[in-house]
């Protein structure tokens, strides 16, 4: 039908040039295959994954990606609205109405989102007329509350990325964390302060066990972490369902799968009064981000981790053990996702339900990608997505536009961020330095 | 280039032989001591006839105690034989199959002891129904990955297929139009996957995951925005009715299971045959596999690598889209949020479990479908076995498979690697 090279030929500058850093064309040849255990093969794919995440974008591309996603989201909002579609059916007789209706719907959606996530002017005037001043800060509090589990689980995915591992299993690790934290919360009786600390540590441990299993399997047998984590997510979801069916985990007097509420001693304390949901979980998340930064940049473990991520074979020649690093990294990553679970069950939900894991595990991947797998980036990305979630709920309440649009925007942002050449094509940007662009983004199953 | 990349055939070591033998002995012991001794009193009854069938097959009534213990003893003996003697491939297969079947039968006896009869034919029909999207999804995976593109987006392809099929079938009142739209919707997501993976060379696992999120968000949004308020017009499709194949459909037991189903089952047969023959018996398939194994070599001999990949990813999406359509207009009719509920990931697991071959993937999909069907049927007969643990089986089995215990499959060598012309 067409030339085989059509795909690359369309944008010779972008793809073919930028995609030939050393090792590009050879990579299919030099991969493993002879070694079924595949420890050697991890090298090339892990390195490529790391490149994909770290170098895939610049600030400009990230910004444009967010703008493009919001514009497409707005178009989707406008052109699925019956009012707008009706106006556009008469676009030739009343073109002005058609455009203003479309603009109006999208604008009202996004302004509701802004009011729900950052600042709502009505609350200020209400406060002057005797309303609560806390309401002014409610949107920001909601953003922080929504961002908390995203920061923690995003750090989980990001840390694994840095070691060249793709952790799709934040969901399962999150569930592991909620189970242990929740159980300690409602079944154990401890004094104030100690209880919540033990429960949070329990959450970390619960997630760490799940993560450890993945790392251990990869280290021992070479089982690809992507497959193991995906499968483990479902195993953990059904395990949660099963546990909630047992009397130990069931609230007395209820027949539906729901656990008792965690004790008051085990809840994460509110930070700004009981009217705002923001709680100590947010501080835990920020502290975790700082800890991950410290771990990555100031410790031997972090150095080994980054070296293994960059090149396991070189790491091995230098006397490091990639296998050991994989186990340690997955354990910490699992623990971080477990902390996310703890922050939800001890901070906002207070009891275990079958759906408590929500979409945090998958959102975490988008957070880590947008945040370029750096702790600071993860915090910013999580705040952005947290504000989208908080605003989305307000938007749905005010304008009846389904909150799922947030998921669409979130996915679009990451798609654009992951493909810088695409963004440059859209905005007619010129390519920057050679290191940036559609570089080698290969990762095989690598078993 | 072997047709079936089985490493374990060459490397079938003594360790693995012992491990397998030990596994069969362990299964046998579970048969005896768990299923046999702990069963409720009362027989397990299996019915083989649906109401209204022409031929009446008598019910089978088994006493769990003796049956489980007998089958368990058989497994133990076979397991020991497996571990001790160096058997060739055929007896090894026979022993594996026997131990597996003995385990399933013992399990069913234990599960049904003293309860209402277990309708075997309904169970197998549920199995086939559950397996259809899994098989089609796994075939999509085979088509993509054999050409060297990782397809994690099966889940999204199923979801978009289900959505497109339900909406169009409902809006236009034509099931066939719905089927075609479902297929095209799956192809649409595959086209995105292809563009990002092949043209922009984004990491294929990342794109796949993000496309799944995208599909879930998009269908969820459109569901709330359009399908809920216009339920009658946009989300009330008919469903395909079963087509009974003459003669074959009247065979007792087998007929109702294999030859009396909706068009989707027959499409699945056809697709399975096409993909298997296409990939392994034709020049086309040889070229596809060459691209997936060693694109540079394939390019050197004049095979159009990128074009082959684009085409295969698109074909895969079309196939998975049909699987998605079967979730709505092939069974329940209307679309619901996240109706695919992880079946795309089970399909992915089936493909890996089946070692990137259509036949292997189909076998795995049938096994996974069986666990899904069993979870349903056990609920209806009032079995105390928690269905949550049963539903866990496909995922747990896949973990066992990839950790290498059952013989590791080898993915196509260039799977996931973008190709850049040198």
Oligomeric form: heterodimer
Q: Main beta sheet of chain A: strand number and arrangement?
A: none
> Any idea what the radius of gyration of chain B is?
23 Å
Q: Could you give the count of β-strands of chain A?
A: 0
Helical/strand content category of chain A = mainly alpha
Strand share of the residues of chain B?
A: under 5%
Alpha carbon gyration radius of chain A: 24 Å
Structure notes:
The complex is a heterodimer of chains A (447) and B (422). Chain A is an all-alpha fold and 447 residues long. Helices cover 68% and strands 0% of the residues of chain A. In chain A, helix 13 runs antiparallel to helix 16 (322-349). The two termini of chain A are 35 Å apart. Chain B has 422 residues and is mainly α. In chain B, the strands form 2 sheets. Chain B has a 3-stranded mixed beta sheet with strand order 2-1-3. The two termini of chain B are 23 Å apart. The model of chain B is unreliable at 1-11 (pLDDT under 50). The chains are: A mainly alpha (447), B mainly alpha (422).
Summarize this, please?
The complex is a heterodimer of chains A (447) and B (422). Chain A has 447 residues and is mostly helical. In chain A, 68% of the residues lie in helices and 0% in strands.
């Amino acid at each position: 039908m067409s030339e085989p090279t059509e795909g690359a030929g369309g944008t010779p500058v972008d793809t073919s040039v930028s995609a030939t850093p050393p090792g590009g064309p050879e990579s299919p040849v030099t991969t493993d295959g002879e070694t079924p255990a595949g420890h050697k093969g991890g090298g090339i794919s892990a390195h490529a994954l790391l490149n994909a995440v770290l170098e895939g974008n610049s600030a400009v591309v990230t910004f444009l990606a967010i703008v493009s996603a919001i514009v497409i989201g707005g178009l989707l909002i406008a052109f699925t609205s019956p009012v707008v579609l009706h106006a556009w059916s008469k676009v030739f007789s009343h073109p002005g109405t058609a455009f203003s209706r479309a603009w109006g719907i999208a604008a009202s959606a996004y302004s509701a989102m802004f009011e729900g996530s950052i600042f709502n002017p009505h609350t200020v005037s209400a406060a002057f007329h005797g309303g609560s001043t806390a309401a002014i800060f409610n949107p920001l509090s909601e953003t922080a509350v929504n961002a908390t589990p995203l920061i923690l689980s995003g750090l989980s995915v990001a840390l694994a990325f840095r070691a060249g591992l793709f952790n799709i299993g934040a969901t399962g690790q999150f569930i592991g964390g909620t189970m242990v934290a929740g159980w300690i919360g409602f079944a154990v009786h401890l004094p104030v302060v100690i209880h919540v600390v033990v429960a949070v540590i329990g959450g970390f441990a619960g997630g760490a066990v799940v993560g450890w299993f993945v790392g251990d399997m990869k280290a021992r047998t070479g089982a690809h972490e992507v497959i193991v984590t995906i499968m483990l997510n479902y195993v953990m979801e059904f395990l949660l369902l099963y546990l909630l069916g047992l009397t130990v985990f069931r609230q007395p007097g209820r027949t539906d799968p729901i656990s008792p509420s965690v004790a008051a001693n085990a809840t994460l304390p509110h930070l700004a009064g009981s009217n705002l949901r923001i709680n100590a979980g947010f501080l835990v998340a920020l502290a975790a981000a700082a800890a991950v930064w410290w771990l990555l940049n100031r410790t031997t473990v972090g150095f080994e981790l980054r070296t293994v991520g960059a090149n396991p074979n070189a790491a091995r020649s230098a006397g490091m053990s990639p296998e050991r690093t994989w186990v340690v990294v997955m354990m910490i990553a699992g623990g971080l996702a477990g902390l996310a679970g703890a922050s939800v069950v001890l901070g906002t939900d207070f009891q275990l339900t079958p759906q408590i894991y929500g979409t945090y595990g998958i959102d975490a991947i988008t957070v880590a990608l947008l945040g370029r797998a750096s702790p600071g980036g993860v915090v910013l990305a999580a705040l952005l997505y947290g504000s989208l979630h908080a605003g989305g709920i307000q938007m749905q309440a005010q304008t009846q536009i389904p909150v799922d649009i947030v998921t669409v925007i979130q996915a679009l942002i990451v798609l654009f961020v992951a493909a810088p050449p695409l963004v440059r094509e859209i905005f007619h940007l010129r390519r920057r330095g050679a290191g940036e662009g559609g570089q080698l983004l290969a990762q095989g199953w690598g078993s | 280039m072997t047709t079936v990349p089985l490493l374990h055939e060459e490397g079938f070591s003594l360790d693995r032989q012992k491990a397998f033998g030990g596994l069969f002995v362990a299964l046998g012991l579970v048969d005896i001591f768990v299923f046999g001794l702990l069963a409720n009193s009362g027989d397990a009854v299996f019915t083989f006839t649906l109401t209204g069938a022409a031929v009446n097959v008598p019910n089978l009534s088994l006493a769990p105690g003796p049956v489980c213990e007998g089958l368990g003893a058989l497994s133990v003996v076979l397991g020991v034989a497996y571990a001790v003697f160096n058997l060739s491939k055929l007896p090894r297969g026979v022993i594996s199959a026997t131990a597996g079947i003995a385990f399933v039968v013992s399990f069913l006896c234990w599960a049904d002891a003293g309860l209402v009869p277990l309708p075997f034919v309904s169970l197998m029909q549920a199995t086939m129904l559950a397996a259809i999207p899994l098989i089609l999804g796994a075939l999509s995976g085979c088509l993509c990955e054999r050409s060297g593109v990782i397809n994690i987006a099966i889940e999204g392809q199923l979801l978009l297929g289900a959505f497109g099929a339900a909406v169009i079938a409902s809006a236009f009142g034509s099931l066939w139009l719905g089927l075609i739209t479902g297929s095209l919707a799956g192809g649409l997501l595959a086209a995105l996957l292809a563009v990002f993976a092949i043209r922009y060379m984004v990491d294929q696992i990342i794109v796949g995951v993000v496309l799944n999120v995208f599909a879930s968000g998009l269908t969820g949004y459109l569901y709330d925005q359009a399908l809920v308020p216009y339920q009658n017009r946009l989300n009330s499709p008919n469903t395909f009715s079963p087509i009974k194949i003459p003669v074959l459909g009247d065979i007792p037991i087998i007929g109702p299971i294999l030859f009396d189903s909706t068009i989707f089952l027959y499409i699945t047969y056809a697709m399975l045959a096409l993909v298997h023959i296409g990939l392994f018996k034709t020049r086309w398939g040889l070229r596809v596999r060459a691209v997936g194994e060693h694109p540079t070599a394939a390019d050197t001999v004049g095979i159009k690598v990128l074009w082959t990949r684009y085409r295969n990813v698109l074909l895969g999406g079309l196939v998975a889209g049909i699987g998605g359509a079967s979730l709505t207009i092939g069974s329940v009719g209307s679309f619901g949020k996240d109706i695919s509920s992880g079946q795309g990931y089970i399909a992915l697991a089936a493909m890996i479990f089946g070692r990137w071959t259509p036949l292997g993937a189909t076998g795995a999909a049938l096994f996974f479908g069986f666990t899904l069907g069993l979870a349903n049927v056990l609920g209806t007969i009032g079995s105390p076995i928690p269905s949550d643990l049963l539903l866990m089986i496909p995922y747990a089995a896949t973990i066992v498979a990839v950790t290498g215990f059952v013989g590791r499959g080898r993915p196509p060598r260039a799977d996931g690697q973008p190709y850049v012309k040198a």
